[in-house]
Amino acid sequence: MGDFYQNGIVTTLHNLVRRPVDDIEEDLSRFSKARPMSLVLPSLYSELEGPALKNIVHELTKVPYLSEIVIGLDRADEAQYRHALEYFSELPQPFRVLWNDGPRLTALDAKLKAQNLAPTEMGKGRNVWYCFGYVLASGVSKSVALHDCDILTYSRDLLARLIYPVANPNFNYMFCKGYYARVADSKMNGRVSRLLVTPLLRSLKKVCGSNEILEYLDSFRYPLAGEFSFRTDVINDLRIPSDWGLEIGVLSEMKRNHATNRLCQVDIADVYDHKHQELSPEDATKGLSKMSLDIAKALFRKLATNGEVFSTEKIRTIKAAYFRIALDFVETYQNDAMINGLDFDRHKEEKAVELFARNVMEAGHYFLENPMDTPFIPSWNRVTSALPEIREQLLEAVELDNQEFRP
User: Which domain of life, per UniProt (predicted)?
Assistant: First the structure.
């Protein structure tokens, strides 16, 4: 049960009374007449073989207000793409599956690469970017939601609450971020958010001084949540990071493009669990180690664009402040776990903090040595300026794939 407290500079929409999902969906069905809605699902083929996505599709069959579902499919050959088309055919809503590894979309990607406009890194950011391009090209919706395909505790009220703030014509929100308690199987999850992002934001405030961007990012209760919703026209100017900095990058972009009174966060789930990444302390290219590096680099870049000057000495000071603040948080979370009867392994928590502290230093050094690094994918406005027919070509490629291979 949430409270009504508003923290920070972003509006928080709480879950105060457990409003029935049928009631919310009735509102959304009415809103959909003026503001049609789409859902984007970025997916790896491997997720079609797990339990989470099967339940997500089953829940989505009960959703009455969506005009379109767009599935981005990564790491799939032709047989797997055919299977995906059959897999999602249970959906009663119009849907399209983007075969990102298929010959038509890879040819389109090569065309963009020739203009230095293509995503440079495989992953969720690239998948989402192409899905957003399709949403813009189809012109079906005025509001769009996005969530992951590995949510083990999914129910359709998550989507209803996520899209409601940008679908309601009486609200002025352009963007909404989902949040939830990361508690499952009698333990606290969300280590990167708890032990890296929040302590790092607090240490940056301490060393660099409080500023609007740090206050803004620290206003989000779960900044790494992969669930967003937008007004569709927001997507045109959105530059999406191609690495694990996606969530922080999207938040930063929304702050750059819109006033904070047009942005909000909403409580979308009492219980949330999904596929967990390994800590991967021995390999900085994998798991939570890579995630922490990419997120720290994203934060350094964002502050630099707002005029903050970094040096080796300042990076060391930030790391030292982070380490002390993060260890204090470990004790806080241990006490919180104990009063709630949750399991808590302090040794593992502190090992994670030690890894993240090393990666804060590594990210700072990388930033200083690579000041021209630009991990953002260009906005769709820039792409269509260079290649005016690209959206129509994307739309045609997806349609032809679906017509040729759909059973």
Answer: Bacteria
